[in-house]
Amino acid sequence: MELDHQERERERDREHLQSEVRPITTENENCSLHSPVQSSPVQESEADASG
Predict the structure, then answer these.
(1) How far is it, in rounded angstroms, from Cα 10 to Cα 18?
(2) Where is the composition biased (Polar residues) (predicted)?
(3) Better-predicted residue by pLDDT, 1 or 5
């Protein structure tokens, strides 16, 4: 019975961690899309290709 209880707790922890991690990752993805740091290397590569 102890093993079952531990397994249930682990599953709860996993779900809790995933629910916490998901919004953080989505925020990071949105920030990275709008961040000027990511767009600058793209512009540089385009300039190198055209130059």
Answers:
(1) 12
(2) 25-43
(3) 5
Contact yes or no for 32/38 (Cβ under 8 A): yes
pLDDT, tens only, 31-50:
555 555 555 555 666 666 66
What pLDDT score was predicted for residue 1?
65
d(CA 5, CA 27): 34
Quote the radius of gyration of the chain (alpha carbons, Å): 21
Burial 15-35 (b: 16+ CB within 10 A, else e): eeeeeeeeeeeeeeeeeeeee
Q: Is 51 helix (H, G, I), strand (E, B) or coil?
A: coil
Task: Locate 27 and state its tokens.
Answer: 């925020």
Instruction: List all residues 6 or more positions away from 32 whose beta carbon is below 8 Å from its beta carbon.
Output: 38
